[in-house]
Amino acid sequence: MTHYERILLTGAAGRLGTELRKSLAPLARTIRLAARSGFDDLAANEEQAIFDLADMDAAIEATRDCDAIVHFGGSSLEASWQTILNANISGSYNIYEGARKNGVRRVVYASSVHAIGYHEVDAHIGVDAPVRPDSLYGVSKNFVESLSRLYWDKFGIESVCLRIFSSFPEPTDRRMLWSYLSFADCCRLVEASLTAPRVGHTISFGMSDNRIKTVDNSGANHLGYTARDSSEPFRAAIEAKTAVPDPNAAATKYLGGWFCELGHPDDAE
């Protein structure tokens, strides 16, 4: 069923964007792929917008004639302050301004566990827990979550902020036994965020149906997301090849994992 005329997908050339590019196709007549370099394999229902998120005019133009945005662009790891500022903070502001000026109805934003990374794993927090970023990257996610809240309350643009944990082809370490989000479940979560009748401003955790539950996502049940995958098929192999982590280490104790052990990215080595 087609829900939208045109969806803008930022970060379309990235790890998750590449997966979403395929799964979004049934939801809109046209998928506009946004990245910093061009695509040479456009499908019949795809078009491209090549620009840097920090370029406000280009970002606003890219949102024209779109009625939904899946915003997965920007820096995906901790980086220098200037990189985070340009790509994640200014870039996301530009996307939301484009949404406001061009009448976009809904935005699905790739937030991150690192927005709440300094909560302890054993705390089992819900989606309404106070933010506790573990990095400048995490701070940028907090900024966009707040920005999206403003744009819902003041301008009526619905947003779903997905606090994605670890989305990879398969888990690679013991932490991912509880933090894993399969590519297929990531696509299901985005689809639910785009098709739920009403989302207002929603924050949701992004994980598969792993045996170990570390957070409470019941505050996002109205999205209708049902995970179908789990880290369990990978458990035996991971436990056989990896050591039991130190329970007192920050990377083990906190939701943000090894991000909690990083220094300031602008410090000299």
TrEMBL record:
Keywords: NAD, Oxidoreductase
Residue ranges annotated for the NAD-dependent epimerase/dehydratase domain, each copy included: 7-168
One family name in Pfam for this protein: Epimerase
CDD domains recorded: SDR_e
Protein family according to the UniProt entry: Belongs to the NAD(P)-dependent epimerase/dehydratase family.
Name this polypeptide is given: NAD-dependent epimerase/dehydratase family protein
Source species of the chain: Aquamicrobium segne
Taxonomic classification: Bacteria, Pseudomonadati, Pseudomonadota, Alphaproteobacteria, Hyphomicrobiales
